[in-house]
Design the sequence.
């Protein structure tokens, strides 16, 4: 009788220790992200992986912390540079430390969808595109950032080769805007248009222009872009 | 035009601070360098002794080259009107005001709603600016959203050339500037004549941080060689494309515009380069490039002081707002920015009365209101004339204690000259104001705008010149759209 109780208790006790450890790690990850302590985030992740903690759990902890950062931005407690910096730190940790381990154990981790994003050919304006990319990442999407001066061919190739859900194109010059249309036309020609959603943005971009060129949507700021992507991919807000 | 305002020149830096900003700028250009995307410019910079890495396109520019370029710059830039009476001389503390450019929407003065702008809107804004006496130069306030995108800048200029006799500044938007020059040349009788009567200036931008884009650099060289006024200034947003500290953002902006001047001056010595920066902050809640920010206003003061130190003509910004409608915020931000820019002593102050919604929406009524604001500012900056006659000792003695000045000859002689009279601002008593319809500023500005547009006819181009201009437009359109 006593033996049975003890046997039952021990595993429970072990699990409990593990739970305490895990929540301790999650707490540290959250703290590191909310205080924008990049070094601490990296250290915590490394130490936890060395201890043999589940990388999937670490990823969930980071995602949860990022969501909190996002909420704090929406409520006005956090500012844009803090949001973007937290996103960048998380991205580094995920791609450099977690992804390699996850790959080894055959688990890629969950995301809401894949976004291929870039500034169109002839245009080297970077910042707006990067803010949108960062906010989409923070919201839980996987980002393929193609950079600036991205040719039509590059967009096509990316859609062909990857599991892309959304193509997002930025243009800041009225003279480079037509490249958004050309990219959409090329997607049609290659029979790829139905496989992806296309969104457009950039200072001279209007709702009318987005409609005219047959994009699936337009957003005039980064938060709106996140809502737009969720809407067109049919993802509920939470 | 405010000719050398007597007072109100704000100088925000001490001599020591000015010196530190200058040497810091030189250090950025020598240590970090700039990226230059245009091959010809890389070769040019290499040939004059800059340290050029052709694979990374990073150019490190030694101090002496930057300072030589400043020495070569035109000290005075003539910016001509189609009519000589509108000619501007950009130098010293002469302050001039002009419209903003490139809005994609209009707050429609007929309907009160916001819609995409058309070529007709550019025509109306230009006509209005042509009529208003405090607007000294014109920019195509809107972009023609009703023409094919690649040729839009051609139509923006086409509408401007036909509807004003004042000097015109256009934005290149990355389009080959040769077409723009050809169009302006057709109005004055050829490229050579355009040099003597530069009725066209171009506004182009390096891309912050520290990058000279391909088309923009090409156009900078093209305009330098054509000896036309060229504004080549960066638009960084502090915290995103420039450092968070204002001193750092100013140093970077200075490095960007001065390295542009190196390319301009070594392409053509004496190039008519206009110096400055449209540096503001990135709003930390929305990410927008703020047009009403006090950060931009203080950068205007900083750049004007630096520009005067370099003896370069100065570009500046005022009369714009982040507000979506013509409200208190719009007039508040427009007034403050205009006052800051005017009291910096800058030579070309753009964005007047034009920009709402971070430069995306233009409003004709705001131009009309800004005309009034500028008129007030001009009055203040003129200062107070102190002479025997204005000290008024005789008339004070004549009236003596307890008298009145209403009917004195001295009063009748001076009241118009010494006092400012509102055209748009309301000073009626409450009961009269109510009897005349209780109209607020926006309503009065709307009525005045409509009245001007109904009455004012800009001096048209002659039939022959108009034909030449139309031909030039068609030629350029064909060339661009065929590509």
Sequence:
């Amino acid at each position: 009788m006593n033996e049975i109780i003890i046997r039952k208790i021990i595993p429970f006790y072990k699990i409990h220790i593990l739970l305490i450890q895990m929540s301790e790690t999650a707490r540290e990850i959250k703290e590191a992200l909310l205080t924008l302590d990049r070094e601490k985030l990296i250290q915590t992740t490394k130490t936890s992986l060395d201890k043999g903690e589940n990388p999937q759990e670490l990823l969930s902890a980071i995602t949860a912390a990022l969501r909190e950062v996002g909420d704090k931005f929406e409520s006005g407690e956090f500012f844009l540079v803090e949001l973007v910096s937290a996103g960048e730190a998380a991205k580094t940790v995920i791609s450099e430390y977690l992804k390699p381990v996850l790959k080894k154990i055959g688990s890629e981790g969950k995301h809401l969808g894949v976004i291929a994003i870039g500034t169109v050919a002839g245009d080297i304006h970077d910042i707006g595109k990067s803010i949108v990319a960062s906010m989409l990442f923070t919201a839980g999407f996987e980002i393929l950032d193609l950079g600036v001066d991205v040719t039509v061919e590059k967009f096509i190739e990316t859609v062909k080769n990857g599991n892309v859900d959304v193509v997002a194109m930025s243009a800041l010059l009225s003279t480079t805007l037509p490249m958004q249309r050309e990219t959409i036309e090329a997607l049609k020609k290659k029979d790829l248009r139905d496989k992806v959603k296309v969104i457009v943005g950039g200072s001279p971009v209007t709702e009318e222009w987005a409609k005219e060129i047959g994009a699936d949507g337009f957003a005039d700021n980064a938060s709106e872009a996140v809502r737009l992507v969720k809407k067109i991919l049919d993802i509920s807000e939470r | 035009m405010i000719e050398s305002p007597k007072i109100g020149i704000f100088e925000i830096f001490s001599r020591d601070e000015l010196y530190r900003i200058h040497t810091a700028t030189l250090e950025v250009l020598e240590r970090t360098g700039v990226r230059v995307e245009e091959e010809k410019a890389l070769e040019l910079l290499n040939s004059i002794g800059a340290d050029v890495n052709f694979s990374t396109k990073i150019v490190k520019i030694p101090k002496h080259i930057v300072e030589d370029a400043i020495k070569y710059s035109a000290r005075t830039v003539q910016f001509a009107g189609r009519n000589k009476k509108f000619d501007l001389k950009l130098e010293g503390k002469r302050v001039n005001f002009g419209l903003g450019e490139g809005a994609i929407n209009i707050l429609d003065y007929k309907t009160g709603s916001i819609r995409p702008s058309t070529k007709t809107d550019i025509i109306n804004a230009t006509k209005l600016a042509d009529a208003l006496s405090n607007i000294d130069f014109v920019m195509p306030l809107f972009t023609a959203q009703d023409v094919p995108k690649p040729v839009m800048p051609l139509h923006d200029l086409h509408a401007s050339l036909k509807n004003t006799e004042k000097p015109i500044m256009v934005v290149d938007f990355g389009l080959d500037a040769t077409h723009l020059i050809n169009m302006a040349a057709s109005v004055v009788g050829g490229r050579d004549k355009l040099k003597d009567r530069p009725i066209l200036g171009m506004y182009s931008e390096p891309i912050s941080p520290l990058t000279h884009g391909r088309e923009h650099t090409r156009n900078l060289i093209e305009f330098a060689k054509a000896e036309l006024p060229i504004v080549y200034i960066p638009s960084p947003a502090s915290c995103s494309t420039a450092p968070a500290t204002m001193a750092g953002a100013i140093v970077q902006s200075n490095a960007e515009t001065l390295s542009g001047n190196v390319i301009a001056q070594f392409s053509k010595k004496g190039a008519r380069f206009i110096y400055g920066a449209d540096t503001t902050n990135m709003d930390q809640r929305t990410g927008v490039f703020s047009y009403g920010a006090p950060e931009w206003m203080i950068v205007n003061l900083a750049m004007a002081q630096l520009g005067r130190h370099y003896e370069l003509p100065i570009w500046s910004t005022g009369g714009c707002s982040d507000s979506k409608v013509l409200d208190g915020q719009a007039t508040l931000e427009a007034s403050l920015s205009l006052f800051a820019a005017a009291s910096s002593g800058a030579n070309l102050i753009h964005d007047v009365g034009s920009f709402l919604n971070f430069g995306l929406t233009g409003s004709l009524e705001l131009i009309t209101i800004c005309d009034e604001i500028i008129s007030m500012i001009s009055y203040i900056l003129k200062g107070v004339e102190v002479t025997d006659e204005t000290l008024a000792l005789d008339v004070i003695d004549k009236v003596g204690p307890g008298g009145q000045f209403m009917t004195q000859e001295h009063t009748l002689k001076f009241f118009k000259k010494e006092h400012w009279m509102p055209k748009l601002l309301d000073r009626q008593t409450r009961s009269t104001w109510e009897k005349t319809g209780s109209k607020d500023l926006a309503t009065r500005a709307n009525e005045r705008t409509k009245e001007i547009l109904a009455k004012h006819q800009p001096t048209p181009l002659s039939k022959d010149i108009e034909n030449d201009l139309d031909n030039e437009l068609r030629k350029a359109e064909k060339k661009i759209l065929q590509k």
